[in-house]
Amino acid sequence: MLHEVLLALSGHPSPLFQSAPVGKSDANIQSLLSPSEAALLKSIGTLAERHRQLRDHVQWIESKHQSTICRAVATSIRQKHLARFQQRILDVESKILTRDATIVGAYDIVPLASIVAQFDDWHRLMFWLWEAVQSIQPATSTSDGCWGAALINHLRAEASTGFPEIESAAIELSRVAENAWLRQLAPWVVHGKLPAYGSSDFFIKAMPEGRTFQKKTELMPGFLSPATASSLLFIGTCLHQIRRLPQQHTKSVHPTSTLLTDTQLASTHLQHLSSLPLPINQAQLSRAVSAIRLSLSQNVLQRLLPMSDITQLLHCLRRYFLLDQSDFAVALIDEAEARLQARQQSMGRLLQQDPLKALKGLTIKDAELHQTLNATWKRLSREEDVEDHVLDFARQHVSLSTTTSNGARPVSSDSVTKHAAQVSPIVFNDLLFPTATLLSLDVASPLDLFISPRDVESYAAINAYLLAIKRAQVRLTELWRRTGNRRDHISNTNTARRTKDARKVWATSSAALHLLSEISAYLDGEVVKGSCDHFESWVEKPTSSEEMDTTMGSTRSETLDVAQRDPETLSAAHRAFLAAVTYATLLTDVPYTREVRSLLGNIDALVAFFNTLLDMQQKLGSEDDDGETSFAMEEESRITLELDRARKKVDSDLRSVINRLRQVDHERIGSGRYFEIKAGESGGFEPWKGGGVDRLLMKLEFGRMPDGAFDIV
């Protein structure tokens, strides 16, 4: 019987532990057992059955599970824990054969209770191991089971159960799992390659085009902080891009012998990873990643992406996307208007009857947009006396196209945008041309280490918003150039009526121009200028490795001089800067953007109908004394009616915009006055905090308009 017990514990089937007797012999065996023996054998039978189930399930996980981390843990359970259990069986057998007094009693009798007592400490551990492998892959489920990150988190939690044997086993398996995770991480951190085996379990995934990567939060273990994960993503992306560079460009990254070679750099990075104690401590992992990032920055990135390239890109974005150079905005608007007027000449009657409908029917192609932007560049080039490198850069990388060929609105992506300001869904890109257009930037390697495609989309959204306000301002200003139409020459009844109707339009146009001028001055002169000046001065300020470590949560005491901040820190700071600018320009406020968009659309209608009416009246001016034809009078009356409707809509929108600005001023108080982001998430950069909406409202207080137009404030 002792032989049967030991064989059953080793995983072999035994008639002693059948759950239900299947034959007469089995029934006879059970009948030979006393109640105490049956109770003792039941405990041993449960342990033997669990051992057999655990062994078979572990073998299945080792051979078929898709997670290398889970397979590593299963292998460790089989090779260590189950091997220890098997060794315990052999030790008990050895004690019996050598007549050890701890088991063998007088007259060489081996009590069954003493055999059972030898395995008392294995019951809880064996059942816990069974639950652990069940969490990897349930025995009764056909699903894919859990991923490595979930298993690591589970093992870390189980280490705090309070039972010493379970705590020891959980810590031991955690070391195995986390070591497997580090093996996955090594090729990414050292060579910029995804792991050859188990890449489906790795938290970094390649995008479909194969050039960019993103993080999967659900595949990140608990000891990996978001900041450290972003740094790991950045490090691997840098190395991946370096491998893709042409050979001659790669050599230029290491032009002097003072920099580490690729082999030395890889060895250094591996040393940082291998020095991590297991289980992994979050702070120690953060310091190791910070050291790797600093090493990469000092030896490669400062030459791959020098500060001059970054500042040139920032100047380009400031000039042509944030419209810091007003000449570009005016030139682009003029070229766009000239192209639309050329297209309108063939419309004739339709344009006169309904100018808005005629414009909406126009379809602009990318080739025409390309010509418009080229004409704008040529105009700016003629105005420049000296060579402008920023303008040359913009001509090569900035394009104007329809939104069908580029994204129209920034969308949330991976964790780099987690703390970004959410841009309002209200679009302004269909005002420059009837077809929605977008100013975009072609960011090639290695500049994409600094700016992401979503950043470019955010810039495009801000540009469309600022350009739409500038365009409405320009169109209203052009109305005032028609000085002859603003003079009061009351020679007959028709002229007196026209002058009276026109005064209301001029009053509304004046109020709208004042509002747009103040909004534009606030956005351009305060928000954009203040934010850009503050950010550029921070970028150009030298830093040290101690400061870089602080942004990663490290507390190393040594300080090394660094010529520039590493690209990841600059990229994080740039995202914080862009989010703060988006927030300060009120582009995140949906009600405000909705009211402004309605105002700009109705201003277009007012200007179009007013110009049509003035041109019509100018042609009919010579016929006033002789009497106008009935058809001409009907057309004039219809256009006058449409103009009055547009004027009333503009009046209403002006009030709505002012009211919403008041509400925003009341809502953005305290911490909500500025866009808040933690220093660790912004690379240590603190965005500019200048005047709020209250400064804009003070400038808009200009009293009651004449002719009962409206009371702005």
UniProtKB/TrEMBL annotation:
CC terms in the record's Gene Ontology section: gamma-tubulin complex; microtubule; mitotic spindle pole body; spindle pole
Domain Gamma tubulin complex component protein N-terminal, residue spans: 2-304
Localization per Swiss-Prot or TrEMBL: Cytoplasm, Cytoskeleton, Microtubule organizing center
Family the entry assigns: Belongs to the TUBGCP family.
Domain Gamma tubulin complex component C-terminal: 314-702
Pfam families on file: GCP_C_terminal, GCP_N_terminal
Name used for this protein in its record: Spindle pole body component
